[in-house]
Amino acid sequence: MRERWEVQGRTGNIFVVSLSVADLVVAVYPYPLILSAIFHNGWTMGNVHCQISGFLMGLSVIGSIFNITAIAINRYCYICHSLRYDKLFNLKNTCCYLCVTWILTVVAIVPNFFVGSLQYDPRIYSCTFAQTVSTSYTITVVVVHFIVPLSIVTFCYLRIWILVIQVKHRVRQDCKQKLRAADIRNFLTMFVVFVLFAVCWGPLNFIGLAVSINPSKVQPHIPEWLFVLSYFMAYFNSCLNAVIYGLLNQNFRKEYKRILLTLRTPRMLFIDVSKGGTEGMKSKPSPAVTNNNQAEIHL
Question: Domain span at residue 267?
């Protein structure tokens, strides 16, 4: 039973790592170029870098929402359909789902090169998706890249909340579902990540949708400060996930603390590695750990 929980944790964490990679993409290339544009008060890197920056920005944004959707589906299957989870999300299938997630992300970005919607916007000093190039394409982007994924995530988390309430209050007399405390914490962490993503990216997407529906009437009435604020709210979202992990997940807090201590005293890294290696050779799995003393809670 213990091995089963470990396998389930690994497969679920694959999508969390993938989401972290999507958040880091913007820090590697687009953000340094944006800082350069701010310092020079304009884009000086040429069109090729502009297109690459816009592509990676889209890769990060769409990759984030698609990975958040994959995480929600994974959590839904894990909590609401636990008997089928091992078959649906074994390691091989999970890797396939991950590949499909990133393939769909790339496919979603490619049309921008044909539409010509990746352009430099001096208001935000970055090359990004231009909402006014094609109204029909902007509507499609908002629906496919934002509304549909968030609808799927909302459904999954709503079903999880319903099950948690049923288990807690024993609404169903035949309900034998058991939820571990760690499961609830992980679910709450990813739920907060989803809510913050929706809050940070919602204004920009709704502005784009409103402008694309009626450009001549809506666009002149949108203040520039509101547009800039919505963009920087969206950019700021990439920095929030790591903070949320640290605030809500004890394992992340421990790792953050260890990393900070390692940066202060690098020799501690080698001490931890050597200590872990010696303890690993000495320690053996305890036979006392059974299904009866697993850290479970009955809500």
Answer: 249-281
* C-alpha–C-alpha distance, residues 54 and 48, integer Å: 10
* Contact assessment for residue 241 and residue 23, using Cβ atoms and an 8 Å cutoff: yes
pLDDT of residue 287: 38
Q: What is the 3-state secondary structure (H, E, C) of 131-175?
A: CCCCHHHHHHHHHHHHHHHHHHHHHHHHHHHHHHHHHHHCCCCCC
Q: How far apart are CA 61 and CA 238, in angstroms?
A: 9
Q: Taking Cα atoms as reference points, which of 66, 83, 65, 85 lies closest to residue 75? A: 85
Q: 215 in a domain, yes or no?
A: yes
Confirm whether 240 is domain-assigned. Answer: yes
> Quick one: pLDDT at residue 299?
42
> SS3 letters for 248-277?
HCHHHHHHHHHHHHHHHCCHHHHHHHHHHH
Consecutive 10-residue runs of the chain (299 residues): their mean pLDDT? 48 81 86 90 90 92 91 88 85 91 94 90 88 85 90 91 75 55 73 86 86 77 87 82 70 65 61 48 42 38
Give residues with Cβ within 8 angstroms of 165, minimum separation 6: 171
Number of alpha carbons in the 13 Å side-chain half-sphere of residue 67 = 27
The phi and psi torsions of 150 (rounded to 5 degrees) equal -65, -30
What are the CA-CA distances from residue 128 to residues 61, 84, 116, 260 (Å)? 11, 41, 11, 34
Q: What is the pLDDT of residue 106?
A: 94
Same domain? 132 vs 275: no
Cβ count within 10 A of residue 215: 14
In this structure, how many other beta carbons lie within 10 angstroms of the beta carbon of residue 143? 14
Looking at the structure, do residues 93 and 201 belong to the same domain, yes or no? Answer: yes
Rounded Cα distance, 269 and 274, in Å: 9
The secondary structure of residue 42, as a DSSP letter, is S
Return the pLDDT at 290: 37
